[in-house]
Design a protein that fits this description.
- The chain is an alpha/beta fold.
- The protein contains 8 helices and 30 strands.
- Strand 26 and strand 27 form a beta hairpin.
Length: 464
């Protein structure tokens, strides 16, 4: 890598230039995990458990069959073979969910289905394929349905193979025992965890809810996909990208259609959305242009630092709930793309708001670096799971990559885990959506590096 001399942290306009790490620390310092609530199991999917869950009853709760076959005493089938089968009297059926069970005595067997409780007297299960199925013929391929041939629950069955004690029997408590820890606090509830909770009889569970994230894009030039474009207009991709990214991070996302470049309209829209937002994300309107509406709409209310405020309403709340509690700081970061950023809290509940730049790549990179960690922190995830994982990889490229002095650059790339290499995708332009769609990682070029030669090892943030 080629390095440059350290840069003056203050640009010519005199405003402080924030580092990426400082901005992220400011965001995470203002966000607190959401308060726990009790949710139905399916509503808790994707949420973080806030309590240890212990097993109230053993799983399985009784000895049961792992096969469709016959419940037998081992002594009655000892030495059985196809030439000399053991002939047993069938005394009835034992289906899954059976209550009253027949007792298997000497010389007897009961037809038993997978999951059915092992009846008294039985010591093992012989699969139906080891028998004639009660037909008097050769090896059976399966059981005749009880409704079609109820008489087969009686009569005789020939068993062609011996069975050891407990063969094809699932022992009571072989999965978990009563009193065992089923799931620890901090577990993210996915389908397998939901299945376990249901299996031990839990209908509800106490979790931190998934954050509700409202995404607004701004710009009078934005048209919604599916509508015709007119002169000077483009389709609104940012709100779709960021709403999808918020869902991917674990949030419940609400996408608001593009807001025109009017400060009053934006303020009104944000006020309307506060009722359903744990976090607000805007995109566009944070730079120095004459129509940067987000900056105009929010900086006029107040621009004191949001550090120390709380995403859950804790901390230094305004004593009067009617007082507007908006505190948005618009700042410049030593990064590319995504130099202009805004962050603060808004409304009486001090709802966190992150204002991202409007260029598509700048917006998405900013989301990954700042918004995704905020969402994960609201969920109550441990610090190790708040940020995207990163690895070290060797640059595979045809030529050196340039990077601006004093800026931490994030370039799109494709990572090859097998070879430990990363290759650039597209250029460094912040408008290149197509390149972003084919990237699975971000290559990180440090602030003091201006050129990266092929073969250089880089930090790589994994997006997938």
């Amino acid at each position: 890598m080629s390095s440059s001399a350290p840069q003056d942290p203050r640009p010519v306009d005199g405003h402080r230039l924030w580092s990426v790490d400082e901005h992220l620390a400011d965001v995470l310092g203002a966000v607190r995990p959401l308060e726990p609530i009790e949710l139905q199991l399916l509503d808790a999917q994707g949420c973080v458990l806030v309590e240890d869950v212990t097993v109230p009853v053993a799983l399985p709760p009784f000895d049961n069959s792992s096969m469709d076959g016959y419940a037998v005493r081992t002594a009655d089938v000892q030495g059985a073979s196809e030439e000399f089968p053991a002939v047993l009297t069938v005394i009835g059926d034992v289906a899954a969910g059976s209550g009253e069970l027949p007792t298997v005595g000497p010389g007897e067997a009961a037809r038993i289905m997978t999951g059915a409780p092992l009846p008294p007297g039985a010591e093992a299960v012989v699969p139906v394929e080891w028998t004639d199925g009660g037909t008097g013929g050769g090896a059976a391929a399966g059981m005749t349905p009880a409704s079609a041939a109820p008489e087969q629950a009686g009569g005789e069955v020939r068993v062609h193979r011996a069975a050891e004690a407990r063969a094809h029997v699932r022992a009571r408590g072989s999965d978990v025992q009563a009193g065992d820890l089923a799931l620890a606090a901090g577990t993210v509830l996915g389908p397998p965890q939901i299945a376990l909770l249901a299996a031990i009889g839990r209908g509800t569970v106490r979790v931190r809810p998934r954050p509700r994230v409202v995404v607004l894009s701004t710009g009078s030039e934005l048209v919604q996909p599916g509508e015709p474009l007119t002169a000077g207009t483009i389709y609104d991709s940012n709100s779709y990208a960021l709403a999808a990214a918020a869902r991917d991070a674990g949030a419940i996302a609400y996408r608001v259609g593009a807001v025109a470049d009017d400060a009053d309209t934006l303020r009104s829209t944000i006020e309307d959305q506060l009722i359903r937002a744990d976090l607000l994300v805007t995109t566009g309107g944070v730079s120095v242009g004459a129509y940067d509406v987000v900056k105009e709409a929010l900086s006029s209310v107040g621009s004191s630092s949001p550090s120390g405020s709380s995403g859950s309403g804790d901390g230094d709340a305004d004593p009067d709930p009617d007082v507007d509690a908006t505190r948005i700081d618009f700042r410049k970061l030593a990064m590319q793309p995504g130099k202009p950023q805004g962050f603060g809290t808004i409304g009486p509940d001090h709802t966190p708001l992150l204002a991202l730049p409007g260029n598509p790549v700048s917006s998405y990179v900013s989301f990954e670096l700042f918004v995704r960690p905020a969402i994960r922190a609201l969920m109550g995830l441990p610090e190790s799971e708040v940020r995207r994982p990163s690895v070290r990889a060797v640059l595979k490229a045809d030529k050196a990559l340039g990077s601006p002095a004093g800026r931490r650059q994030f370039l799109r790339g494709t990572y090859d885990a097998e070879t430990g290499t990363v290759s650039p995708v597209g250029g460094s332009g912040s408008h290149l959506i197509a390149a972003l769609a084919h990237a699975d990682s971000l290559m990180v070029v440090p602030e003091d590096v201006t050129s990266v030669e092929p073969g250089t090892e880089l930090e790589v943030v994994l997006l997938g």
